[in-house]
Amino acid sequence: MTDKKPLEKIEGMIATLMQQMKIPGLSLTVVDKGKAIYTRGIGARSLKGNLPATPNTLYGIGSVTKSFTCVALLQLEEQGKLKIDDPVSKHIDFKIGKEDKPVLIKHLMSHSSGIPDLGIAAILIRRHSFPEMELFIPLSSAEDWLMHANAAQGEIVDEPLKRFFYFNGGYALLGLIIEAVSGMKYTDYIDEYILKPLAMNRSTFLREEFEKEEDRMAAYATEKGKVKESTHPFDDLIYSAGGLLSSVKEMENYLQMFLNEGTFKGKQILKPESIKRMIEPMIALPEGVFGKAHYCFGLGKMENFFGETLITHGGSTAVSSAYLAFIPMKKMGVVIEGNVGNTQGGLIAQAILTSLLGKNPFEDHPALRLESKLNQLVGSYQTFKGINKAEIVKMGQQLYFKDPEQDCPAFPIIPYTDTKKNYKFWMPAGITKFPCEFIVNSKTGKISFIFERGVYHKIGPIKPKKKEKK
Predict the structure, then answer these.
(1) The model's pTM
(2) Which residues contact 365 (CB under 8 A, 6 or more apart)?
(3) What is the pLDDT of residues 70-79, one digit of tens each?
C-alpha cells in the first residue's frame, strides 16, 4: 500500500472486532482512484493447522452474488432475449401475485414484489450446514421450489413497488429465468459471460471446484457464543441468490467493472447505461445513519455518505460472509470476506471509506462513534461495598443490563444519541422510557452507571463463568 497511515487505526479496529465477534479469518481489498492500495488476509482461513487467510482465499460471498444475477439479466436484455419489465410468468411457471399488477422480473431484482420471505434460504442453509435443524419441507428441485412458492398467494402483503421485502426466493426464481432464456445452466452462464471475462478463474459455485483449491476457507458457525467448524451450503437453489465463492483479489476485478462503467481491461461486460440502471433507486429502505437509502438491482444505495453516493451489498451464508461497497465518482471501493456468518464487513468497509474521504471514522461516522462509546462501557459493575452487582454486556451495537446473580432476562440500554459526550440512555418499561445514565470521569477514567435507586461502579471486565463440576 502506498500510504498506510489512514488505515493503521482501522487495522486495530479489525483485530478487536475479530476477537470480539470470534471471527477466525477475513480478507480485504481496498481500491482508491481506480487502483488497489491495500490487499491482505488477517487471521486464519482454517483454525486446523492455523492456516493464514490471504487475498486469494476463497470464501462464500452470500448475497453479494445477487448483483451477479442482475448483471446476467441485464446482459440478456441487451441481447434482446428478455425484458426486465416482463412478467415473471412469461418465462417460468410462476402463478402468484395480484392479477391486475403482476410481478415483473425487475420487482424480483429489487425485492419490491410485495412477496415476503418464503424461507428458501433458511430451509436450505439448515439442511446443508445445520442438519439438526432440518424442517423436512420438500425443496430439492426447481419444481419443488415453484410448488412451494406457488402455494403462497395468501402471503402476499402488497402489490409491487409498495413495500420492501428481502426475498431470497425471488432470486432463485431469477436463476430459473436465466436458465430458461439462455438455454444454459445458471452456473455455466455466470462462468462464461461474467467470471471468465473478469479473469475470476478460481471463483465458483461448485463444491468439486472449491475443494480442488488449497487456499480456501474452512466454514465456521457461531452457536451460543461458540464457534465450530461447519459446512458451506452448496445447492442449485441457493446459487443465484447467494452461492458464489470467490476471493477478494478476484472480487476486485468485479469491483473495477463497476468503477469503469461495465468494462474490465478493454472487455465490455455490461453497457454503461445498464450499469447506470443497476444503481437507480427502485424502492426505499429504512433510513439509516446517513439518511435516505434505496434498493436498486442487487445493490443498495446511500445518497449522502459524507456527500458521496455509496453503493453497497452484504451477504451471509451463516458460515461465511462478505461485503461490497464502492463510491463510483471517486473510483473507490472495498471488498471484505470472512469465514463466519458475520464479519462486520459493513462496519469495516465504511470505516475504510470514511478514512479515505479524509474523515476520522471514529469521530465522524455515527455508527463507529457509537461503537467506540459503547465498548468503553462494557464490564462488571457493583454498588457500594459490592452489595448489588450488574454486568453491562454488548451484542452487536446494543448494550444490555444484566444481573449476574439472578436468572432473569437482560434489559436493553438504548442511547438517546450517538455522540461520544452524551452518556444518557434509557430502558424500555412497558410503553415508557425509563432513564438511566453513565458517568465517565474524564480525569480518572472511572465509570459509574445510574439506574433507578442505584449507582453501579465499573470494577473491571466481565469475568468468564465458572463451569460447574459434574
Answers:
(1) 0.89
(2) 289, 350, 351, 354, 359
(3) 999 999 999 9
